[in-house]
Amino acid sequence: MKKLLCLFLLGSSLCFSQKLTIPTDTMVVTTHNTTVKGISFSYTATTGTQPVWNKKGEPTATLFYTYYERNNIKDKANRPLVISFNGGPGSASVWMHIAYTGPKVLKIDDEGYPVQPYGVKNNPNSILDVADIVYVNPVNTGYSRMIPNKEGKLPDRASFFGINADIKYLAEWINTFVTRKNRWESPKYIIGESYGGTRVMGLANALQNQQWMYLNGVILVSPADYKLYSTSQPVYSSLNLPYFTAAAWYQKALPSNLQQKDLLEILPEVEEYAIETLMPALAKGGFISKEEKLQVAKKMSYYSGLSEKSILQNNLDVSTSFFWKDLLRDKTGQTIGRLDSRYLGIDKTESGNSPDYSAELTSWMHSFTPAINYYIKNHLNFKTDVKYNMFGDVHPWDRRNDNTRENLRQAMAQNPYLKVLTQSGYYDGATTYFGAKYTMWQVDPSGKMKDRFTFKGYRSGHMMYLRHEDLISANDDLRDFIKNSLSKGKSAKY
């Protein structure tokens, strides 16, 4: 009898089991209330999936998104729309969603460290007071997935996983989204963090020239510029020195006469030294004179907190990974974080050229993963057994033919309305603030559009908004940028 009962239960469970898939085209709508900058209002959250189609009109993927609209807005034509991406490539749009611009933020301490119980709380600094926001998850991130055809075969990965493929299908997806939500009249902004910076530089041009959709603003948050990373020495290496100074200052590892100054008093002189002295010195390679090499090593040590010996052993070309390992090697024996050098790690051994792990990323995964899974299910009422991919399988990623920097220049030249804001944390060692400045300088070599670029720096790392003080100021900077880039009845002409 027991055997028959077990067989019955097994058969019943098989009858109710389903293939693990995400709906191709669906949405869940919920309403909420919040208070931003002291003003209370209600908003609607639409959470769902929207397809990507091939040339035959067949769905090849579906993208998970969350769309927030402030309620009781009569004039949607003048209501800005912000389209938000994170980076990776392969990262879900979770980080800015529940820690920066959205109506909810993580329960973390004021410096960004995890606090239990995990969850979210109201964000009184969200830009939802001045703009509606949609957070988009590219293929294989969040709940976004490729869709097999009738034969069960998945589409060619090359149609999604590369700089230009990514830009192409996302531009088409945005067109559909804007049409469905009836937002063609609205001023539009695209914001991208990290690799998302590369993405939105390319999207600015693709939206204008392939989708005929013109933007008011492009926002680069801790942007990754692969044109810069693929540049051989001496350019890239010299640009790291101001970051070294910032991180060493935070860790109290600079000489006392520098340490007693405020960070922003120090950085301008280090930036000047990096461009005018270190870059030319590195350009000489092995043919630099011994005297000059020693002078540069001494100054680098002064500005970085590293020993002259370590710098000379690296031939003046100090990698960021070595810096993370070496800065505190003879002090506390700890490593510092890659994406945010305020964070500390503990390696198996103090020897070596790079940390065993990223102290900051493990901390962030600690707090973000439970919070986003809880929030989507319990606040947004979107339920699925599909795993939420904080980081998805998108590799190999095709970096060839990266023209995104030129794409942004062309989009700006064609569109007199278009302005650019860059936001960076001084303690970011992955996409350094000075690297972001350098990219900004290089977009328009003519200098004729430089008054349309704005740079803002913060005393934190890659996700500057995790530090409470910077959450406030960075959102205020976004709010000001949006307000200042609206047309206000002015014609789009030079």
Overall description:
This protein is α/β, with parallel strands linked by helices and 494 residues long. It folds into 2 domains: 322 residues, 3-Layer(aba) Sandwich (Rossmann fold), CATH 3.40.50.1820; 126 residues, no CATH class. 36% of the residues lie in helices and 17% in strands. It contains 15 helices and 14 strands. The strands form 3 sheets. Strands 1, 2, 3, 4, 7, 8, 9, 10, 13 and 14 form a 10-stranded mixed beta sheet that branches. Strands 5-6 form a two-stranded antiparallel sheet. Strands 11-12 form a two-stranded antiparallel sheet. The relative contact order is 0.14.
Strand-pairing-aware structural class: alpha/beta
Largest sheet: 10 strands, mixed
**Mean of the pLDDT scores?**
94
In CATH terms, the superfamily of the largest domain is Alpha/Beta hydrolase fold, catalytic domain
Number of domains: 2
Q: Helix content range of the residues, please?
A: 25-40%
User: How many beta-strand elements?
Assistant: 14
User: What order do the helices and strands follow?
Assistant: HEEEEEEEEHEHEHHHHHHHHEEHHEHEH
CATH fold name of the largest domain: Rossmann fold
Continuous helix count: 15
Low-confidence stretches are 1-17
End-to-end Cα distance, whole Å, is 86 Å
CATH architecture of the largest domain: 3-Layer(aba) Sandwich
What is the 3D shape? globular
CATH class value of the largest domain: Alpha Beta
Q: Strand fraction band?
A: 15-25%
Radius of gyration, whole Å? 24 Å
